[in-house]
Every structure is written in structure tokens, then in C-alpha cells.
């Protein structure tokens, strides 16, 4: 059983819940606090659900961000990409001097650099952190990349939490560059699958197209991947769209123009906005998922 100092989450969604429950089940006995803006929602159903999430994960919920960060030696920021800079700005007003601020949000290196300046000016130690795989099923063992002048200190702290991190380099942006450029392929592939499968379904040729792709790329199992890719976008499309906007900024900053990333944004946002329940439709049935998307697109 491992004992560490207090850990605080900014944002308590899928990633934070996965890390927290992983620690608990592994016997890591760090005191854990969290603040999520949904607790301040004017909708009681939204607010009450978040407080229930805290209780279920044995987390001390903060009424305010300052309450959650009070005394925290490690802060893990896990919000949506479009909220990452605002989260850093808010944390800078109340972070403990010397606390590690692990920014695990899917942002462009330029955004991470802006956040680092805010945290460092407030006395915190900023760490560019990239979550390099889906958080399930590995939970707190999901691979992480760390970068920046405090990466080695963060590696020691996260290792004490039984996490699996590696140092990508001493410069803020090194970890996020890897994450962002990888996402061109990973989230871009989801968008390609959507366009291919939905067009194929409407034309009545989806089975033939996917079967022919399996001949070209044997072992890939395009129908299974089609189901998985559609489910991911239906469930997380809004969050992925925010990430892909940061990917486009990354490519822009490299002087290449983020054309493919912006195209992926459109599909991720469009399908995410439909708010379809993939689990209820049948997450392993690519045809049923495609039909549900098409029906909603035709009758918004």
C-alpha cells in the first residue's frame, strides 16, 4: 500500500474517475479532492450527479477550486481542451507554492506554453502531460508522457501513485506535440470512418466497401473498427472536436496548415452534437450505429 500527499483533480470526468478508482483498487491511499464546474450547474440533475460521482469514487468534492487545491501537492488538470487555459488561469489564483501542476489536457504546445507561464508565475511547477491511450481498461496505468523542467519531479510523484509515466523531454510542449500529431491519425481515422461508412450506408454499398478494404488490409477487421470508431465519436465527439481544434493549431504553428485536422473537427462535432446513446443502440453493430446517425442527421 502506497501513501502519498494530497492530490487534486480539476475536472472529474472519465479520465479522473479512471485514475482515482485505479488508485483505490490498487491500495494507493492518497487523499484525493476534486473540483468540476458541473457542480455549479444551475441544473440540479447535473450538479447532483457530479456530487454523486465524487462520493462513489471516495473523493472530497470542493465547493470551489480553491477548496479542492488547498494543501494539494499534485494537481491533475483533466478538463476539455477548450477549457484548459481557463483552468490554468483559475488554478494560478490558488495553487499551493511548489505544487506540481500536471496539465493532462489535449492541447497544442502553444496553449501549454501559455498555461505554463500562468502556473509558474503563481509559484506552481507546471508539467506538460499527455495521456497517450484511452483510460479504460488500464485506468491509472494508462501511459503518460511528461515534459518540461519539472518532468522528473512529476515522474517521481506519479510513480508513487503507481502511474505509468515517461519523460519526453525538458521543454514544455514536447509531450503535447507527440499527442497532438498522433491525434491527426487517431481522431482523423474516426472522421474518415464516419464519412466512408455513412456514405456507404446511404448508397447501399457499405458491406462491399468494408469487405474490400479487409482484402486490401487483411487482419484489420474494418467492420469491427467501424463500430468502434462510430461509438467513440458518438460518445466523445464534442470533446474530441475541441482536441482537434488544438491539433489544427499545432499544425498551423508548424507552418503546414491543419486542413485534415479541421475536417476531423467537423465530423467529430457534428456527430457529437447528436447526443446519441451508442450503448443503447448496440456499440458492436456498425450498421445500427450508422443508421442511428443517419436518421438523426436527416431529422434533427
Relevant terms:
300 residues, alpha/beta, Rossmann fold, N-(1-d-carboxylethyl)-l-norvaline Dehydrogenase, domain 2, eight-stranded mixed sheet, 11% strand, globular
Structure report:
- With 300 residues, the chain is of the alpha/beta class.
- The protein has 2 domains: 7-172, NAD(P)-binding Rossmann-like Domain (Rossmann fold); 180-298, N-(1-d-carboxylethyl)-l-norvaline Dehydrogenase, domain 2 (Orthogonal Bundle), CATH 1.10.1040.10.
- 56% of the residues lie in helices and 11% in strands.
- The protein contains 12 helices and 8 strands.
- The protein has an 8-stranded mixed beta sheet with strand order 3-2-1-4-5-6-7-8, sandwiched between helices.
- β5 (100-103), α5 (109-121) and β6 form a beta-alpha-beta unit.
- α4 runs parallel beside α5.
- The protein is globular.
- The model has no long low-confidence stretch (mean pLDDT 96).
Amino acid at each position: 500500500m502506497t501513501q502519498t500527499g494530497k492530490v487534486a483533480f480539476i475536472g472529474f470526468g472519465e479520465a479522473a474517475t479512471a485514475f482515482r478508482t485505479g488508485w483505490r483498487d490498487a491500495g494507493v491511499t492518497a487523499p484525493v479532492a476534486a473540483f468540476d464546474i458541473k457542480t455549479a450547474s444551475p441544473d440540479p440533475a447535473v450538479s447532483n450527479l457530479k456530487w454523486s460521482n465524487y462520493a462513489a469514487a471516495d473523493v472530497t468534492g470542493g465547493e470551489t477550486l480553491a477548496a479542492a487545491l488547498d494543501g494539494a501537492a499534485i494537481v491533475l488538470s483533466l478538463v476539455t481542451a477548450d477549457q484548459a487555459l481557463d483552468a490554468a488561469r483559475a488554478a494560478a489564483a490558488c495553487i499551493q507554492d511548489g505544487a506540481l501542476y500536471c496539465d493532462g489536457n489535449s492541447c497544442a504546445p502553444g496553449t501549454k506554453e501559455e498555461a505554463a507561464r500562468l502556473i509558474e508565475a503563481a509559484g506552481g511547477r507546471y508539467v506538460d502531460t499527455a495521456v497517450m491511450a484511452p483510460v479504460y481498461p488500464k485506468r491509472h496505468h494508462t501511459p503518460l508522457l511528461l515534459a518540461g523542467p519539472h518532468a522528473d519531479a512529476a515522474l517521481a510523484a506519479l510513480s508513487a501513485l503507481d502511474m505509468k509515466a515517461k519523460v519526453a523531454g525538458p521543454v514544455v510542449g514536447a509531450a503535447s506535440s507527440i499527442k497532438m500529431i498522433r491525434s491527426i491519425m487517431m481522431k482523423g481515422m474516426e472522421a474518415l470512418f464516419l464519412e466512408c461508412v455513412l456514405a456507404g450506408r446511404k448508397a447501399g454499398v457499405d458491406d462491399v466497401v468494408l469487405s474490400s478494404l479487409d482484402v486490401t488490409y487483411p487482419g484489420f477487421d474494418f467492420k469491427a473498427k467501424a463500430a468502434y470508431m462510430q461509438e467513440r465519436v458518438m460518445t466523445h465527439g464534442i470533446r474530441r472536436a475541441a482536441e482537434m481544434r488544438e491539433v489544427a493549431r499545432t499544425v498551423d504553428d508548424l507552418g503546414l496548415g491543419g486542413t485534415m485536422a479541421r475536417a476531423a473537427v467537423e465530423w467529430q462535432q457534428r456527430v457529437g452534437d447528436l447526443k446519441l446513446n451508442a450503448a443503447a443502440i448496440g456499440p458492436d453493430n456498425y450498421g445500427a450505429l450508422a443508421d442511428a446517425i443517419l436518421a438523426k442527421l436527416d431529422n434533427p
